[in-house]
Structure formats: structure tokens, C-alpha cells
Amino acid sequence: MSDHDITTGHVGLNVTDLDRSVGFYRQALGVEVVGRSDADGRRYAFLGRGGTPMITLWQQSAAPFAADRAGLHHLAFQVADGTDLAEVEHRLRALGATIRDDSGVAGEPAAAGQLFCYDPDGIRLEFYAVERPPRPARAATDGPACGFF
Is 11 helix (H, G, I), strand (E, B) or coil? Predict the structure, then answer.
């Protein structure tokens, strides 16, 4: 097996309300439901594009995400450029998400080439552009901007 044989497939997230989370991720990411079960006690949804799952949501949590426990730090999504990132930011704001810019760059988050927010269960999400605008010096020098929350 070479290093090129392993890639990330999909990410599975535990959620407290499947319908709410499906709506959030469908609107935020522009994905479709590619599989779903509403069986009592076994509710889940596969979200993705072209029939390929990107995210699986499992309704099996009684409480929101807790950042003080080992596990997921954040989930990052890549977009092509600042224009796409601005569109994502617009969709997230329409969903009522609180947008954070942890890049150390003042101004609109999309202008910095990355933004952070939380999903309905408090899971931290990052959206970043591959083609980022030029960045001024960071406002803080205490490690990676996305590292602590």
C-alpha cells in the first residue's frame, strides 16, 4: 500500500436532532440526502453529492458537543476561493450561525480566507478558501488561530 491509497472518506457526527442538523448541513454545504433511516432508535442520514456521502449524521446524543472531552476538535471544509467563501458565509448567516474569524485579520471573515462557526449541536466548523487573499501579520502570536476555543 502506498501513501496515496488512503484518503478521508466521510465524517460521522452524533447529533441531538437529526432533522435540524440535516437542514443545517444541507443549506450550509449545498449537499443532498443520499441515504436516510427514520427507524425508531436508529435515525441517521448520509449527506453528500452525486450519491457519495461526505457527512453522516447519527441521532444518538442527548446533549450538545463538549469541547472539553477528547475527540473531534473541528471539521474543516475547503472551498475554491474568496467568492465561494463569501457565499458560504452568507448561507451560514441566513441560518443564524454566529461567524467567528480566528485568523487575526480584522474585517469580514470571508475577506480573511477562513471563518469558523458552530453547527446546531456546538460542533466547531471551519470553512477556508484554497486561494486566499494576502494576509497581514497575525494579531496574536500564541499558536495556530484555530487551535483553541
Answer: strand
What sign does the dihedral 121-99-128-48 (CA atoms) show? positive
Instruction: Count Cβ atoms below 10 Å from residue 140 Cβ, excluding itself.
Output: 9
CA dihedral 120, 125, 129, 135 (to 10 degrees): 120
pTM score, whole prediction: 0.82
Q: Are strands 114-118 and 75-81 parallel, antiparallel or unpaired?
A: unpaired
Sheet (strand 124-131) strand order: 75-81, 124-131, 114-118
| Tens-level pLDDT at each residue, the chain (149 residues) | 676 788 889 999 999 999 999 999 999 999 999 999 999 889 999 999 999 999 999 999 999 999 888 899 899 999 998 889 999 999 999 999 988 876 655 556 666 788 899 999 999 999 988 876 655 545 554 555 555 55
Nearby residues of 138 by Cβ (< 8 Å), 6 or more positions away: 103, 104, 105, 145
The domains located in the chain, with CATH, are 6-62 (3.10.180.10), 73-134 (3.10.180.10)
